[in-house]
Amino acid sequence: MAASLGRFCKSGLLKTNYGTLFSQQVHNFSTTNQWSRGRKVLLTCLGVTVGGIGSLIFALDKSVQASDLGAKLPNYKWDFNGLLSSLDHKSMRRGWEVYKNVCSACHSLKFVAYRQLVNVTHTEAEAKALAEEIEVLDGPNDKGEMFMRPGKLNDYIPSPYPNEEAARAANNGAYPPDLSLMVNARHNGENYVFSLLTGYCDPPAGIAIRDGQYFNPYFPGGVLGMAQVVFDEVLEFEDGTPATASQVAKDITTFLMWTSNSEYDDRQRLGLKAFIILTMLSGLLFYMKKQKWSTIKTTKLLFTPRRRE
After folding, report:
1. Residue 134 and residue 108: Cα distance in Å, rounded?
2. DSSP characters for 84-130?
3. Which of 24, 137, 196, 289 is 20 to 30 A from 256, alpha carbon to alpha carbon?
């Protein structure tokens, strides 16, 4: 009787412990399975999001390139492209002459002030003389009246038209864009500007050109309202440089590269300083690492077994 009772209690105890252990394992497995399933869902959503953003960026880039609908731009070797290269200030000065004598009749530089030309393309006295050539509406004066005054260095280069409607009326409905940020506003901007200025040609068969329109394969759509303005000897440079069409286009492109990136030379100079400092720090860190680890690398450890007494 006692033996039977013992066997029954033992079997019941074993069943109870086994059931508890089994239920704990099932609970842990279900919790782990739920956590892993949640992690999988989270990673899946993250992957879909990243992939969608990447696909959107790729599609936008392709759509921007496809919207150009122009000839492929050649890549010219520019003097300012390079880690240690800066803008050619003589070319920039000639580019200002091109803008003043050729481009300023239609296009504006509304984000460029005369003071920005100082020590870049002109001296301070020359920039003041250029500013004084324009008349600026100012006021009111002591009588409350507006008046015209000569320009100052802080004044911005004026637009050739008082408003957009006047600009469109003078150009058969086309609005001449501002050139201040033109290089940055176009894909491969410097090559686009140069190719556009030198790429005028007769339209191919099948393309109709109306009066007041011109064909240029580098312009989106091929048809634009700006006539060709860059020719050989279209102006005379002050420094005597031959004003060939390619030279004129190169100089105005260099000047517009500066108007779009006025900090270009400072950025190049800062990058050179950072490169020199980082190179020196790298050498110093390598020397310190070599000194610190030389003792450890050359140390020999000798283990001697303990003698048993």
Report:
1. 14
2. T----HHHHHHHHHHHHHTGGGT---TT-BGGGGBTTTB-HHHHHHH
3. 137
Q: Which of 138, 139, 140, 119 is nearest to 128 (CA)?
A: 119
Distance CA 170, CA 193 (A): 23
Cα 12 versus chain centre, distance: 77
Which tens digits make up the pLDDT trace of 102-121?
Answer: 999 999 999 999 999 999 99
Q: How far is CA 211 from the centre of its chain?
A: 37
Say if residues 255 and 98 touch (Cβ distance below 8 Å): yes
Choose among 138, 143, 141, 113: nearest CA to 128.
113
Place of tokens 């039977």: 4
Q: Rounded CA gap, 94 and 122, in Å?
A: 11
DSSP SS3 for 277: helix
Place of tokens 């303005």: 229
Q: Can you tell me the mean pLDDT for 70-76?
A: 87
Peptide bond into 177 cis (omega under 30): no
138 bridge partner residues: 147
- Give the residue from 157, 158, 138, 140 showing the smallest Cα distance to 148: 138
- Nearest Cα to 232, choosing from 246, 253, 213? 246
Q: What is the mean pLDDT of residues 9-33?
A: 44
Per-residue pLDDT tens over the stretch 137-159: 998 888 889 999 999 999 999 99
Could you tell me which residue, 266 or 17, shows the higher pLDDT?
A: 266
Structure tokens at 127: 């920039």
**Phi-psi category of 186—alpha, beta or left, where left has phi over 0 and alpha has psi -120 to 50?**
beta
The answer, yes or no, to whether residue 5 has pLDDT greater than 70, is: no
